[in-house]
Amino acid sequence: MNGLPETLDAEGFSRWRLDPDNWAPVVRDIAGNEGIDVECPTSFKTGTNLVVDLNGSEILKLFPPIYAAQFRGERSALRLLKGRLSVPVPEIRGEGQNRGWSWLIITKLSGTVGSEVWPLLTEDERGHVIEQVGQSIAEVQAVAPRELATMGPTWPQFLSRQTQNCIERHRSHGLAAHLLEDLAALLIDAPSVLAEDARPVILTGEWIPENLLLDQTSEGWRLAAVIDFGDVMTGRGEYDLLGPSTFMCAGVPSHVRRLLEGYGVKAPEYDEAMRQRLLTLMLLHRASDLRKINIAGWENSIERLRDLQNLIWPEISLAT
Fold it and tell me: Is the Cα dihedral 223, 92, 153, 102 positive or negative?
């Protein structure tokens, strides 16, 4: 297929996708081969890969060779999760590969991107959406991973890789020196903190407003759909509580309670050990950047890094 470069690194791909003259002919060719008439394809500015609105009802996701694993992961996830959640996920309408590039044509779901309206929601509406998110995470994790479990990295490999560059990553994000010292100690404890055996489940790592579609109903804003499964992997289920905890709950006890109860956590399970696991996983998350925690002035509210777990996951009463 003409117009597809054979080799591009991440930076080169970012530059390539900025110019519609580079990708519009490719998009029209792919859509035409699938019988889709496209006049003015429009790209979304966010995301790792090129995501294009074809005609208002279908989306094309184009993956360069360096992100081929994301294509395989998202394709498998969408197939496995079809019809398995209380809210929709995109359905695959077409797929293909050429010269190392891959693409999916998926349905465009109705709703407003959560990040666009989250600041406008009332606290009660946020609580409802957060509870729905917890339920949706649990529904995803109830689906057997099947081929996703073989795609790698394995959970131990992932934790090892994240541990190796953890201190440098947080140093580059400006974490205070005394908290970096705490981080080193926490990493030493990480193997024992996370040692408890847990069944590997499907993880997206991206349960954040940018990947949620919301709809304004007669009862207020509610979760309408879940999108973007490009970073899917398998591992410990608690990992997917991190995004909604840090970006949506913002340390508000009622929101944390609704997230955990939606997910299915019972009172005896929400203990100091669980909060320590959540903090450790948050520090190891592949997108971890403590500057983005949605709790204003948290840096001035703690003396040790370990104190952060009680800000994000405060003591609350859960159902027994």
Answer: negative
| Residue that is written with structure tokens 């470069």 in the block | 5
Identify which of 234, 235, 232 has the alpha carbon closest to the alpha carbon of residue 71. Answer: 232
Position 314, amino acid:
P
- CA 249, CA 85: separation in Å to the nearest integer? 22
* Pairing mode, strands 92-98 and 112-113: unpaired
Distances, alpha carbon 57 to alpha carbons 36, 45, 50, 109, 285, in Å: 10, 18, 17, 8, 33
Q: Residue 94 carries which DSSP code?
A: E
Question: What number of helices (H) and strands (E) belong to the chain?
Answer: 12, 10
Contacts 24+ apart (CB under 8 A), 55-59: 56/108, 57/107, 57/108, 58/93, 58/105, 58/106, 58/107, 58/108, 59/90, 59/105, 59/106, 59/107, 59/108
223-281 pLDDT, tens digit per residue, is 999 999 999 999 999 999 999 999 999 999 999 999 999 999 999 999 999 999 999 99
- HSE at residue 116, side-chain half, CA atoms within 13 A, is 10
Which pairs from 40-43 meet CB under 8 Å and 24+ separation? Answer: 43/17
61 close to 231: Cβ distance less than 8 angstroms: no
Q: Which of these, 93, 88, 87, lies nearest to 75 by C-alpha position?
A: 93
The pLDDT score that the predictor gives to residue 259 is 98
User: How confident is residue 40, by pLDDT bands cut at 50, 70 and 90?
Assistant: confident
How far apart, in whole angstroms, are the C-alpha atoms of residue 109 and residue 107?
Answer: 6
d(CA 204, CA 206): 5
pLDDT tens per residue across span 127-167: 999 999 999 999 999 999 999 999 989 999 999 999 999 99
Contact 137, 263 (CB under 8 A): yes
